[in-house]
Design a protein that fits this description.
The chain is of the alpha+beta class. The chain contains twelve helices and 28 strands.
Length: about 550
């Protein structure tokens, strides 16, 4: 199945297939003293002369024979040698630094080797002579865009714990063409019960059966043990077509243990009954579905003109205009703007400033138009934004403090009036300082989280950006006055993370920055549309002058 693309005459499209990689290991090194290893698989890809981390699986606790649920999805190009390296680590702490964990072994191969073998089994090379094996399977993905929300319960499961009841969980596995199975989901563990009700969970139909409703799905029930040696209770098989019919007697399944049945013979009935409580199938729309249907992106730039940036005439200032390379502010505007402008139909961008004294009387403002026109702050193209920024540096006095709430509320007013899915607003804040209106900004962001809006904060300079990490609610959802944000809409990126390579081309820095900054936009965009039940319109038939459907990270991957 070739990867779905939009046909655009006069452009180029490299043929590629989307494949899903699944990993499992056997007989890993036991690196822990009082328990078994806690393995995690890390995939690296070879690009531009070096290895780059592609992704990490979940951690499988106390297990030397892990079957990882997390899959890696990537494009396969027949004509390219795509080198891959799989590394296995025993996770010893919460640190993201791999050097803090025990290395168990690695395997290098090409994606072509995996695809041609269907399932590639190789020995791991590592600290010992025998480090175990890794099996990597590849399956071509279908274009199915449906997802399923299911919930299961069970009755009268076998008791497995000597001093108490079982701690049951379910494992779902997709069948492969060679008759083997690949684990795709595990439920949570319900402690001390023989009659559990598991929480509802969502799986894509592509993950569960690759779009084939008649493909066999194996469901196994286990009793969880802390040492990783989970006790098998029983299993059964079904299909997505059967499950899609919803709760019925046909979706009540006897959980069978072949070993126990062989031992007890005719006296054995089952090891419990697992019942489907609900099953709802919905079409999943992608970011590109909305863009092709005409949803417009609007990007507003907000620039920090506080005195902590330094005198613009000094070479040490973050606002210094060098004849040789753009400063950090200009780099951020240009890098992100070059991507965003491809999705903006009129190419007119509002640009605001904050933290400066304005002519003629020196009044401090935290929401002023860079072009000097408060009733029409729009600028023609990204170059227009850059020109307005440079002119502003010569007409205002850098002052302070650093307040974000006014510019957040400015964009929120527009987003409030456009909730029908036809428009989505992005606010790009570029700042050097420690925020001084944290309570007001937090409240503004929590309120904006229910609107079609995302906020990107780029930190320039070497200030303490701890407050920005709080606003970026990846770990803890932002809240204000007891109200929790409906969505995570903030992405914070420190510019200094992209300035470390000596002699690097400014355009390359801008490209890497833009990729990092815009990474979360599609998912934030989709979270609003799904939360408010907004469906995309049919694709527009229009002539595109710029080919850029792959500029933003695709939510389809």
């Amino acid at each position: 199945m070739a990867d779905a693309v939009v046909f655009q005459p006069g452009t180029v499209a490299v043929p590629a297939t989307l494949v899903e990689l699944s990993m499992s290991c056997r007989k890993l090194i036991d690196a822990d003293v009082f328990s078994k290893s806690d393995p995690m698989c890390v995939l690296n890809v070879y690009e531009r002369g070096g290895w780059r981390e592609f992704g990490r699986t979940e951690i499988i606790w106390n297990n030397l024979n892990p079957d990882f649920v997390k899959k890696f999805v990537m494009h396969y190009y027949f004509e390219q040698s795509q080198k891959l390296m799989f590394e296995i680590y025993d996770v010893d702490s919460n640190s993201a630094d791999l050097s803090k964990h025990d290395f168990l072994g690695r395997m290098e191969c090409t994606l072509g080797e995996i695809v041609s073998a269907n399932k590639l089994v190789r020995n791991l090379r590592g600290p010992k002579k025998k480090c175990g094996t890794i099996t990597v399977g590849a399956e071509e993905l279908s274009s199915c865009k449906e997802q399923c929300t299911m919930q299961f319960c069970a009755h009268k499961l076998d008791k497995k714990d000597f001093f108490g009841k079982s701690d049951p969980f379910l494992t779902f596995s997709r069948s492969n063409e060679d008759g083997s199975y690949t684990v795709v989901h595990r439920t949570e563990v319900i402690k001390r019960t023989l009659n559990p009700t598991w929480k509802p969970f969502i799986l894509s139909i592509r993950t569960l059966c690759n779009g084939d409703y008649d493909r066999c799905i194996k469901i196994e029930c286990y009793d969880w043990d802390a040492d990783g040696g989970h006790d098998f209770i029983g299993e059964f098989t079904t299909t997505m077509r059967e499950l899609s019919r919803g709760p019925s007697d046909r979706n009540k399944y006897e959980c069978i243990s072949a070993k126990k049945r062989a031992k007890k013979g005719n006296k054995y009935q089952n090891s419990g009954v697992v019942e489907l409580m609900s099953c709802r199938i919905e079409k999943v729309y992608t970011f590109l579905d909305y863009i092709r249907g005409g949803t417009r992106l609007h990007c507003t730039f907000a620039v920090d003109f506080t005195a902590s940036n330094g005198d613009p005439k000094s070479a040490t200032s973050l606002h210094f205009i060098s004849p040789y390379k753009p400063n950090a502010y200009a780099s951020a505007i240009q890098g992100v703007g070059q991507i965003i402008q491809d999705y903006d139909t009129d190419k007119m961008f509002p640009a605001l400033g904050f933290g400066a004294r304005l002519p003629p009387d020196g009044v401090v403002s935290h929401e002023f138009a860079l072009n000097g026109n408060p009733t029409n702050p729009y600028n023609a193209g990204i170059q227009g934004v850059l020109d307005a920024y440079h002119r502003t540096l010569n007409s205002v006095q850098l002052y302070g403090p650093t307040n974000f709430a006014p510019v957040v509320n400015h964009v929120a007013r527009f987003a409030t009036a456009a909730r029908d899915g036809n428009d989505y607003f992005i606010l790009l804040i570029i700042t050097d300082g420690i925020i001084t209106d944290m309570p007001q900004t937090t409240e503004a962001i929590v309120n904006a989280a229910s609107l079609p809006m995302s906020i990107i904060i780029i930190g320039v300079g070497d200030a303490d950006f701890g407050a920005m990490e709080v606003l970026d609610g990846d770990d803890v959802r932002l809240s204000s006055r007891g109200k929790v944000a409906e969505r995570d809409i903030v992405q914070f990126v420190p510019m200094r993370d992209f300035m470390g390579r000596v002699g690097e081309n400014p355009a390359s820095i801008q490209a890497r920055l833009a990729q990092e900054v815009l990474e979360e936009i599609p998912n934030q965009f989709l979270s609003y549309m799904q939360k408010h039940n907004v469906k995309p319109k049919p694709p527009l038939q229009r002539q595109l002058t710029i080919s850029s459907v792959q500029s933003l990270p695709s939510s389809e991957q």
